[in-house]
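Re: NAP structure - here you go.
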Amino acid sequence: MNDMTVSLIVAVSENGVIGRAGGLPWRLSSDLKTFRRLTMDKPIVMGRKTFQSIGKPLDGRDNIVVTRDPTFEAPGISTCESVADALTLARVLAKTRGAEEIMVIGGAEVYERAFSVADRIYLTRVHAEVEGDRHFAPLDAAEWRETSREALPQGPKDDHASTLFVYDRQKQDA
Ligand SMILES: NC(=O)c1ccc[n+]([C@@H]2O[C@H](COP(=O)([O-])OP(=O)(O)OC[C@H]3O[C@@H](n4cnc5c(N)ncnc54)[C@H](OP(=O)(O)O)[C@@H]3O)[C@@H](O)[C@H]2O)c1
């Protein structure tokens, strides 16, 4: 029995963009606060490029970085050479800290790899059309059920308004 939820957490523009030139194509304080709340006290799995764009380990979370470079290391992180190994390590660390959810925080390459094993997606829809070079594919409505949504109105530190959607993978009939 698998009692651990594997979740992707991603912010996506109306036209499917998640990144530009190695960074985020917007400034969204409301979404960063939501991200912090949803990932706190859990293992987070990320690609090496996303780790380097953040620039430091995120506090209060087990930082697991996926890289094919066996020599890559940085203070405050664990590294794994595949997404599968990262999820295995994340399960162990989650159990150790009593968490029931593993958060996959990107980027595009790591989302693609983890997509098939994800149970849940926290998707912040950024209400803007932006240019970018990293994308998140549209969800198949037959596969994913929207279980909640919450408006994140545009505050003074937000470039755009956004909405946080939660999608759970539809259970297959036995
Ligand atoms: N909007 C959002 O919610 C969001 C979230 C996160 C990131 N982003 C954006 O997305 C962009 C980064 O995404 P990205 O796709 O370029 O990079 P990424 O997924 O963050 O990192 C890619 C790197 O991770 C390692 N990697 C990926 N898959 C692997 C695998 N299966 N096995 C072993 N190593 C693997 C490789 O590292 P090595 O090259 O070291 O081998 C690869 O070059 C940035 O613009 C970032 O700001 C957006």
